[in-house]
Write a structure and sequence with these properties.
Length: 407
């Protein structure tokens, strides 16, 4: 009686399955397949946001087992075998009956299980050897197909329209961060933002993003990003404070993600409360340095280049040119990266950081976010989302990076 609102094509799902299988042979060479528990990774591999487990054998047909939502799963996914289950003790027999029996050794996406459920799974499958397999899925998700890139390009275009073209005409000095946040929600939702940002790092959460006026940009933060914020409340340290007013002569940073059809782009837009010619030299130079670093990364982020090379150059330039103290955050807000992969979550593989030496590949999508904290003043800088092409990185979230004057 119902039709699904959307489908991931069967050929696209098969491509993803083959990518995971290929990486699994390196990540867990003894495993005969992988068990996937994370709902988002289940969506990536099946096309439905299922609550349960996917068994993806190295050879044979995948089996999706759901605690709830079997009818929805069958509407949305092209998988042949979508079955209900109640207990982990049923998994092996259900998959065997579907023609895809468990193997002696199996990889598991362990980040999709809490400790209690992991122990329960081990007890129910004690005759099997369970091997960590998270990286096989992470590496598959790292390189996007044309199907995914098309969504991300549309997402980035809408993102730029909201932050660069529309919001400057609605916000003004004298507004609180919270008022600016509410306008941002209104604009983003009107352009198709689907209302959620997802993160894969354990314990991290984000609602649309950060709104930081003036010294809020350096406010102590527990979030794994360089931009500080006061946030709504200690119990919800997100978006902007009702008590912080954007004053004349202050920068304003909006680090807000956009989500379309499950995929994210990340972008930070800097504004200044006053005319362009009133921007203080210290602020202007810091912002221009960040643009320069982003542009350098954009030019050099080609297939074969490693994330660690990009990171090392930016850190070296910051140190040599007097920006080292506040580059990528002040004091405890400083983070050890200049960007990150992005897709179905804000924080995908690879980090653009020291020690990440797997070369970039065409089809990767990364967010580059050089930012500069200025003690006692604010944080400035940029962030945009880039598609790795054969001759460098191409911004899909706009190509105007200047600080926008608002007065």
């Amino acid at each position: 009686m119902f039709d699904a609102t959307n489908h991931i094509p069967a050929a696209e799902l098969d491509r993803r399955h083959q990518a995971v299988r290929l990486h699994l042979q390196t990540v867990a060479p003894d495993a005969g397949g992988i068990l996937v528990f994370s709902r988002l990774n289940i969506y990536y591999l099946t096309g439905t946001f299922g609550q349960g487990v996917l068994w993806l054998p190295l050879t044979g047909t995948p089996v999706l087992l759901l605690r709830k939502g079997v009818a929805r799963g069958r509407l949305e996914s092209s998988l042949k075998h979508i079955l209900p289950f109640k207990s982990y003790s049923q998994l092996s027999s259900l998959c065997a009956d579907a023609g895809s029996p468990f193997t002696k050794s199996m990889a598991v996406v362990m980040a999709g299980l809490n400790w209690q459920l992991g122990n329960m799974l081990s007890a129910k499958l004690k005759e099997h050897t369970l091997i960590p397999g998270d990286q096989a899925v992470a590496l598959a998700k790292m390189v996007k197909s044309e199907f995914e890139l098309e969504i991300l390009r549309r997402c980035g275009a809408l993102h730029h329209e909201c932050l660069y073209n529309i919001l400057p005409g609605l916000i003004h000095p004298g507004m609180t961060e919270r008022e600016i946040s509410h306008l941002a929600w209104q604009v983003f939702f009107s352009k198709g933002h689907m209302g959620v940002l997802r993160m894969q790092a354990h314990g991290e959460e984000c609602f649309l993003g950060h709104v930081s006026a003036g010294d809020s940009g350096n406010y102590p933060s527990a979030f794994n990003g360089p931009l500080g914020l006061r946030g709504e409340h200690p119990g919800s340290a997100l978006m902007g404070s009702a008590y912080k007013v954007w004053e004349k002569g202050e920068p304003l940073m909006l680090d807000i993600g956009f989500q379309l059809e499950g995929y994210h782009t990340d972008k930070t837009q800097a504004y200044f409360a006053g005319p362009q010619d009133s921007i203080p030299s210290e602020i202007g130079k810091a912002h221009e340095f960040c643009i320069e670093m982003q542009n350098w990364v954009c030019t050099h982020a080609k297939p074969g280049v490693t994330p660690s090379e990009l990171y090392a150059y930016c850190i070296d330039q910051a140190d040599k040119r007097g920006f080292g103290e506040g580059f990528m955050g002040l004091d405890e807000n400083k983070v050890p990266f200049i960007g990150h992969g992005i897709g179905l979550t804000i924080d995908e593989f690879p980090p653009i950081a020291k020690g990440f030496d797997m070369p970039l590949q065409k089809g990767m999508v990364i967010a580059i976010e050089p930012k500069q904290g200025i003690q006692g003043v604010a944080m400035v800088g940029v962030e945009n989302t880039f598609e790795i092409t054969s001759d460098g990185a191409r911004s899909i979230s706009g190509d105007s990076y200047e600080m926008v004057p608002v007065f």
